[in-house]
Amino acid sequence: MPYVSRDALGRVVGLSEHATEVAAESLPASHPDVLDFLFRDTGTERGSARFLASDLAFIRVVEDLVAVLVEKRLIAFTDLPPAAQDKLLDRRSMRSYLSGVSGVFSGDEEAKII
User: Fold this and answer.
1) What is the pLDDT of residues 55-75, one digit of tens each?
2) How many CB atoms lie within 10 A of CB 2?
3) Which pTM value belongs to this model?
4) Helices marked H in the chain — which ranges?
5) Fewest C-beta in 10 Å: which of 20, 25, 35, 91?
C-alpha cells in the first residue's frame, strides 16, 4: 500500500513506497484519493473522466470475455459468483433492449419515426 502526502486542503499530492515524515498515511492503491492523484490532469477533472471512460470500455471487454469462455465451455456460467451472474444478466438484458431500439438513434430518418 502506498503512503500518501496531502496538501493543506487534504488532497493527495504525493505517493511513497515507504513511510516518510510527510507521507505517513497508508492507503490502498484502489482508494479514491490515490486514484484521483494518479489520474489528475493539472487542475481539471479530465484525468478522472478518462479513467472512468477506460473502466466503462473495459467492462465491455470483460463481458465479452466471459461470454466467449462460457460459449467455448471453458467455464460454466454457474461457476461465477451469484452477484457476478446477476450483473452479467442485467447487462445482457440492457444490451439486448438497446439493440432493439438502436434505430431510434441512427442517422436514418425513417428509423426515427416511432
Assistant:
1) 778 888 999 999 999 999 999
2) 19
3) 0.47
4) 32-38, 46-71, 82-100, 109-112
5) 20
